[in-house]
From TrEMBL:
CDD domains from the UniProt entry: NDPk_TX
GO-annotated molecular function: nucleoside diphosphate kinase activity
Family, per entry: Belongs to the NDK family.
InterPro entries: NDK-like_dom, NDK-like_dom_sf, Nucleoside_diP_kinase
UniProt name for this protein: Thioredoxin domain-containing protein 3-like protein
Pfam families, per database record: NDK (PF00334)
Superkingdom, taxonomy of origin: Eukaryota
Hydrolase listed as a keyword: no
UniProt keyword Transferase, yes or no: yes
Organism for this UniProt entry: Plakobranchus ocellatus
Keyword set, alphabetical order: ATP-binding, Kinase, Nucleotide-binding, Transferase
Length: 415
């Protein structure tokens, strides 16, 4: 439902649409939706294509929050296209933009509008009409543009540009808001199996980062055939078991601990269906569809529940402990050192400040007894207070192989 407001100002026709929560009688509170500014330029308006273009927007799920039909002034055009002022065609561009009425629009899409800037720019295509027709023939500029810079449509180039253009053209527009979901930061286990890891590691890791995941844990490890068979023991009744074991033990694989909002479902959505044929048919952009090797086994694993994620992360990244000592000559900077320890991802389970005796120093450094500096080392360690800590090493910061045990896995992740 919408509240419509019509206003006339300097002979302009301007329509604003503001979303209301009619169940409570108040504006929806929360985060402002993402928006972009679009302009249907004089060439498309003169051809009578404005309504046709707006219909195409709506078919793609784009919502028009505000619109205004008018002729831009020379000053306005020069301000909006100031980034092109050094171009040879700048004056011609300004003449074109101010040659007749344009439609100014504020657009959003979906519940949050987060992708509207990219969505709209993808929809309109390259700036140059000839390039648009060659590279993106279905784009709006390819369909409605005349030539060169007479490309029918404008879209904000970035969130900063959108904010500037919104303030410039629609200074009084109240942007609709949405209730932003509280983040549920999770960790999940991801496995890139050996063939994909060997051939496409950097490309896959780049996609993981682009999807908003933080790689909290990282380990390269090579399983023996027996370890792989034990790891997937619950699958041994299935016909693909031998091929799965061979695939998992044919070289190093990469185990990752991924973190982000709703990491478990987000990673599994990114992977796509476990069956390769189904992934290609129903989710061609998924990782399992994009990275297919000759083994017939999909190249990725993802935990399917929080319980499974915890178990699998513990399996690949077991918690380990060590003792750390801040020596007497560094006690003056102990707070800074402890801060660095935390920043590196370590957790301090227990801490004590004490004077180390000679007996304790000898226990700490038995391998140094035959060194020339041993007496000075003991003297230094016993010269004043030290800070000792039982430090828990965050999983994944140690890249030490260890015997693998059994872990529960979703059967759908293999075939």
């Amino acid at each position: 439902m919408y509240l419509w407001h019509h206003s006339l100002h300097r002979r302009r026709r301007c329509v604003f649409r503001v979303a209301l929560n009619l169940s409570t009688g108040s504006y929806t509170s929360g985060e402002a939706k993402g928006v972009t500014v679009a302009i249907i330029k004089p060439d498309a308006v003169a051809q009578g294509k404005a309504d046709e273009i707006k219909n195409e927007m709506k078919e793609k799920g784009i919502e028009i929050l505000a619109e205004e039909e008018r002729t831009l002034t020379d000053e306005e055009a020069r301000e909006i296209y100031s980034d092109l002022k050094e171009e040879d065609f700048f004056d011609e561009l300004i003449n074109f933009i101010t040659s007749g009425p344009s439609h100014l629009l504020v657009l959003t899409r979906g519940a949050t509008g987060e992708t509207i800037i990219k969505d709209w720019r993808d929809m309109i295509g390259p700036n140059n009409v000839e390039e648009a027709r060659a590279e993106a023939p279905d784009s709006l500029r390819a369909k409605y543009g005349e030539k060169g810079y007479m490309n029918a449509l404008h879209g904000s180039s970035s969130s900063e540009a959108a904010a500037k253009e919104l303030a410039f053209f629609f200074p009084n527009l109240a942007i609709p808001t949405y209730q932003k979901k509280k983040e549920n930061i999770q960790r999940t286990l991801a496995i890139i199996r050996p063939q994909a890891f060997a051939q496409k590691k950097d490309e896959i890791l780049a996609k993981i980062n682009e999807a908003g995941f933080k790689i909290a844990m990282y380990k390269e490890i090579e399983l023996t055939r027996d370890q792989a068979a034990e790891f997937y023991k619950e699958h041994e009744e299935f016909p693909y078991f031998e091929q799965l074991v061979e695939t998992m033990s044919c070289g190093p694989l990469l185990a990752l601990g991924l973190a982000r909002d709703e990491a478990i479902s987000a990673w599994r959505d990114m992977l796509g269906p476990a069956n390769i044929d189904e992934a290609q048919e129903t989710a061609p952009d998924s990782l399992r569809a994009q990275y297919i090797m000759d083994s017939g086994i999909n190249m990725f694993h993802g935990s399917d529940t929080e319980e499974a994620a915890k178990k699998e992360l513990d399996y690949f990244f077991p918690l380990e402990q060590t003792v750390a000592v801040i020596k007497p000559n560094a006690m003056g900077t102990k707070d800074a050192i402890i801060e660095k320890i935390h920043e590196a991802g370590f957790r301090i389970a227990a801490r004590k400040e004490t004077v180390i005796t000679q007996e304790i120093a000898e226990i700490l450094y038995p391998h140094c007894k035959d060194k020339e500096y041993y007496d000075k080392l003991v003297e230094s360690m016993t010269s004043g207070e030290s800070s000792t800590a039982n430090t828990r090493i965050v999983r994944g910061l140690l890249f030490k192989s260890h015997p693998l045990g059994v872990s529960g896995h979703d059967r759908r992740d293999t075939k």
